[in-house]
Fold this protein.
Amino acid sequence: MPPISPEETPIPPARPQPTKLAALEPLKLPVFRMLWSTWLVANICMWMNDVAAAWMMTSLTTSPIWVALVQSASTLPVFLLGLPSGALADILDRRRWLVATQFWLAGTAIVLCAALALDLMTAPLLLALTFANGIGLALRWPVFAAIVPELVPRPQLPAALGLNGIAMNASRIVGPLTAGMLIASAGSIWVFALNAVLSVASGFVVLRWRREHTPNPLGREKLVSAMRVGVQFVRQSQRMRAVLTRISIFFFHSTALLALLPLLARNLQGGGAGTFTLLLAAMGAGAIIAVLFLPRLRQALGRDQLVLRGTLLQSGATAVMAFAPNAWVAVPAMFFGGMAWITVANSLSVSAQLALPDWVRARGMSMYQMAIMGASAIGAAIWGQVATVTSLVASLSVAAISGTLLMLMALRWVTDVSGEDDTSPAQAGWAAGPPTEAPQENGRVVITVEFMIDPARAAAFHLVMQQTRRARLSQGAIGWELLHDIAQPERYVEQIVDESWTDHLRRFNRATASDMALRERRLAFHLGESPPVVTRYVVRR
């Protein structure tokens, strides 16, 4: 069957509205349950590694900046490698890619064990190995984020993402507790050894998943081209821009608490490794409790209201931790901080997933994760340096105040006024698409679409064509212009440029139901019984 053309495909029938589902409903699906369990174990390993590395750094140095840099080393790889990782997850077999990431993490844990066994561990080496572990996380997260929507029906997606939050925060409890017990009883080397074993076991569990990978009939996209298209999609999506702005502000400021938590734990009355573990567990418990109430909260409040209230609660928890004298005050503060964290993260993650069609989902979610990790890495370094120059109290107080103020500014100035787009693939046939055979000449493809418009309706037509521009560029076009005939005022020519004939066809296959609805809005302006004239050219080199 020929590819679907966004210019000429009719609108598919509207889908029924999603029903309200319980928070645990997706666990009834066997494949989701299996992969969710794997995700839980993988995150336990992540927290075990982070806790062991952070606590080990406090034994190697007492400088706040070195301790905070452990958080930066863990998160910076996701910022640096997120986009190519997301592009590869959209191109390659997602199952095999997920397995490979688990084995990478196991290898890093083995190297950590060897360095400790040979007494070679230093602060710079610990940061380097933490960075290597972060590379595995950078490769793993986008592919898992892209897999979840294909495992559950769309109405269950918020609940599935909430369950992922439960896995993350249950691991925040189990991981630090396990790491703390192993550090106290046997030493840090056994934390990394257990990490290696669990990572290998998780990889073999994923191998049991019999997912059928369907290669693209147009072949694999080139990595650079796939990255370019992913960036274009996010730049043209008003919803994704709003989501990325909000999540960056939130994690830039909230990471101050996590990055400086080892030092805060040491400074509490009777503080030590057990106190550090207790505080992380309290944060995880708060997040788990919040997930169970998120379905009701989403019915009562809009996304931005949830984000604002979550930010206010997070800032309050950070301020309390700045002055907490003992664990009796600190534990409740971390509990409410965990509730705030999952409320903001889940609300924005759901919004990002619903804004992304499947063909670009891993790339879009990789940029979402890049925003989180980039903001966390930079924030950890900055708040650590502020604490070094001033004090822990000053650093956390500034983070709490500025986090609230900047989020208020973002909610006011970086608006998301669009409704929820239907990103499902356009399933209907098309009437008169491009030629089925590729042209003999290679080169860029230029498409023109000629419209005859009533001059009295030109202003409204221009608004629709600006939306069309964003849609064309989101699908991968490298150029777009709207030409107006001076001699014939009712004649407009839309000009689209694609990088090649193959990319031209890829853009057709990326059409969504929302694109088809936008097409009908364009055609409503066209005068005459015959449709707009579509002409295709190849640019000769």
Summary: The longest helix spans residues 30-60. Residues 456 and 490 are 9 Å apart (CA to CA). DSSP finds 17 helices and four strands in the chain.
